[in-house]
Design brief:
Blueprint: E1 5-8, E2 11-14, E3 21-32, H1 38-43, E4 45-55, H2 58-63, H3 72-84, H4 91-103, E5 108-116, E6 130-136
Antiparallel strand pairs: 1-2, 3-4, 4-5, 5-6
Helix pairs in contact: 3-4
């Protein structure tokens, strides 16, 4: 099926095609006190966050204006703060909290959040425990 095209900031874009670019910030280290066990909450541990955001960056590219995109510096600060506060039992709850922080930004269409818990209390040799969730605006 052929869609009409239009030119936006010098690029050809097919009408009806989702305009979602991907902005990723990976490896955000956070010291937090989440976990089911008392010692996890008492001692804390490093969690690592990966964020992938669906953002239409065409307007920002055309204008060179930060207000037309996501300020990833302030986003990371907010995500880090959200992860450091209010301990929860499950990384599922933490991942949802981080997704909510990302989706609170007007320009974010969808988000993929991966929470790494490399020091999870598991009685085996392993390299990482991760949970990845995908959320979008409804």
């Amino acid at each position: 099926m052929n869609h009409p095209t239009k030119t936006l900031a010098g690029a050809r874009v097919s009408a009806g095609t989702p305009m979602s670019d991907r902005l990723a910030v990976r490896g955000i280290e956070v010291l937090a006190h989440h976990g089911v066990f008392e010692f996890e909450r008492r001692e804390g541990q490093i969690f690592v966050l990966d964020l992938v955001l669906g953002v239409d960056t065409a307007a920002a590219a055309a204008t060179d204006d930060l207000s037309e995109t996501v300020d990833y510096g302030s986003l990371v600060a907010d995500a880090k703060l959200a992860a450091e506060q209010d301990p929860v039992d499950l990384i599922e709850t933490l991942a949802q909290r981080i997704a909510d922080v990302c989706l609170a930004r007007e320009k974010v269409e969808w988000v993929e959040v991966t929470v790494h818990k490399p020091h999870a209390p598991i009685e085996a040799t392993f390299s990482d425990v991760t949970l990845t969730i995908n959320r979008s605006r409804q």
